[in-house]
Write a structure and sequence with these properties.
Elements lengths: L1 E7 L11 H11 L4 E7 L12 E4 L4 H13 L1 H9 L3 E5 L1 H5 L3 E3 L5 E3 L6 E19 L5 E16 L7 E5 L9 E2 L1 E3 L2 E4 L10 H16 L12 H17 L4
Parallel strand pairs: 1-2, 1-3, 3-4, 4-12, 5-7
Antiparallel strand pairs: 5-6, 7-8, 7-9, 9-10, 11-12
Bound molecules: glutamine.
Amino acid sequence: MRIRVGHLYPDYLNIYADRGNIAVFARRARLRGHELEVTAISVGDDIRPGAYDLLYVGGGQDREQALIAPDLAAKGPAIKEAAAAGASVLAVCGGYQLLGRGYVDRHGVSLPGVGLFPHETVAGERRMIGDVLLECERERGERRTLAGFENHAGRTRLDPDAEPLGRVVAGFGNDGESGYEGVRVGRAIGTYLHGPLLPRNPWLADWILSQALAHATGGQPQELDPLPDLLEAEAYRVSAQRARDRGGRF
Ligand code: GLN
């Protein structure tokens, strides 16, 4: 099967090797006989409804976010339409912030958001940097954990009825106070976790791929054949231990 990926602003939003998440999607799809077709979508490009099974956006400094935010907000209706029609979305850090209703950066400049995610972000004085460990669910009742790295000034406040991606075991998370990290809206996931995120959390890569495949086929999400993931398990183990040892401290 061909999985069509729209990679938003790879030329602006790509810190902490966030591009590596695309490489993980491509490899894990290929090992199951599928092919990833990645299209870069940047300033001035259109998003054709129905053209993508998965939309991906990485993180970036305030400066890069300010350069693309108006263009991204203008793409908001198409992004929300795609998500409502069942496309998967993975948004990391700066991209996660801008898929919410907006981000007030460290200079007090208010950047518009897409409004796909039920939250708002305001930059604080001190950056929240370090390893993170989350407890979350793959599907309701199926407990999993996620390990990654965060570096953000933004404090993201979820709406009261919003579903976080996970509970913070170690680290700062959305705002260093709520005890939650990220957000989930159907097949759309937002998170502060860099690293990149997916090499050390292959179960999440497979969950997102299975949702994207369901969109591509018009069917229901199917479990993907398991892979050995020995290196991935070691990367996760080291990252999770670092988070337990020193995550969430200024
Ligand atoms: N510039 C944003 C912040 O500082 C996002 C940073 C990032 O993507 N790592 O919060």
